[in-house]
Amino acid sequence: MAKDQEYHPLMSEPSDEAESSLPPVKPTWTSKLSRTVLVILLAIETLALIVALFFLLRRTHHTTCTMELDPHRVLYSPALEAVEHEVQVYNVGFTGDLSPFQIPSSPTLDGMWNDLYNFGISRITKDEAARLPNKTHAIPGDDGYYIAELDVFHNLHCLNKVRMALDPDYYPDWCISTTNNWIPSQKNATEHVSHCVDWIRQSIMCTGDTSVIVWQWENFMNASIVKGNVAHTCRKFDKLQDWGKEHMLHMAYDPTVHIEDDIVVPIFHNNFD
Questions:
Q1: Above 90 in pLDDT, residue 66?
Q2: Whether 92 contacts 229, CB under 8 Å
Q3: Taking a C-beta distance cutoff of 8 angstroms, is the pair 50, 43 a contact?
Q4: For the segment 243-255, what is each residue's pLDDT rounded down to a tens digit?
Q5: DSSP string, 183-242
C-alpha cells in the first residue's frame, strides 16, 4: 500500500441508505470477454501442467530403456539363426550332484572356463551390422566386417571373474577390496567384479527363467524339501558356441582407428530418455 493513500476500514454492515443510492451495475461485453479469455487461459495452463506431470512421472533413470514389443518378437541378432531349444536339468551343485566345474582352482578349471567363451568377440558383415538395434564399429583392416559380441559370452566372462575373485589365494590379481579393507592396488579388479556382479543381476532379470522349482516329500526327513533338479527350457549352448567360433575375429582389433560408415541406426518407437 502506498504511503500517500488513506486507509478506510470496511463497514461490517452497509446502511440501507448507502445501498439505495448506488445505481445497479450491469456487466459490459468487455468484462464478459475478459472473463472468457481468463477461463480459457486457465484451462490451457491446467492442461499443460497435467501433460508435463504425465511425462515427468514416466521418465525413468537414464540407464533404463524399454520398448513395447510383441510378445513373440525379439530384437535382431545375427546369431538368431543358431538358436535351438532343448530341455535340460541343472546340476544342483551340492554333494552328490556336482557339476564338472565344481573342482578346485587349477589350470584344468581355467581351461574349462576359457573354452566356454574365448572366441566370444565376433566379426559380422555390414548387412548384419546395419540390422542391429545399436550401431557398432567397423574392424580396421578387415573391410566389410564389424565387431560384435554375444552377451552370453560376456556373461560367462563376468561370472568367471567373480569365480576368480572368490579364490584370491590362487588368483591374487583378482583379490578385491572388502567393506573394511580398501586395497588401492586392486582398484581395477574391485570395480571390474562390481560391474560383473551387477551385469549378471540384470541379465538374470532380463531373461527371467520361468522354470518351476518344486518341493517334494522325503520320508527319511519327514518333511517336504526343495528340489532343484527340475526341467528347464534352454537354448542349445553348443549351437551358440559353433556360431561364435565361425565368426571369430581374424586379427587383433585396434580400437584407436576410427572408420566412418553410412550405417543408420534403426528407429524404434520407444520411451528412451
A1: no
A2: yes
A3: no
A4: 999 999 989 999 9
A5: -GGGHHHHHHHHHHHHHHHHHHHHH------EEEEETTTTEEEEE---EEEEE-HHHHHH
Query: 158 near 165, Cβ under 8 Å?
Result: no
- pLDDT per residue over 151-207, tens digit each? 999 999 999 999 999 999 999 999 999 999 999 999 999 999 999 999 999 999 999
Q: Which three cell numbers stand for residue 60?
A: 525413468
- For cell 567363451, name the residue: 117
* 41 membership: H or E segment, kind and range: helix 29-58
Question: Helix 107-117 to helix 151-165 angle, to the nearest 10 degrees?
Answer: 160
How many CA atoms, within 13 angstroms, populate the side-chain half-sphere of residue 15?
Answer: 3
Q: Is the entire prediction scored with pTM above 0.85?
A: no
Helix (H) or strand (E) holding 51, with range, is helix 29-58
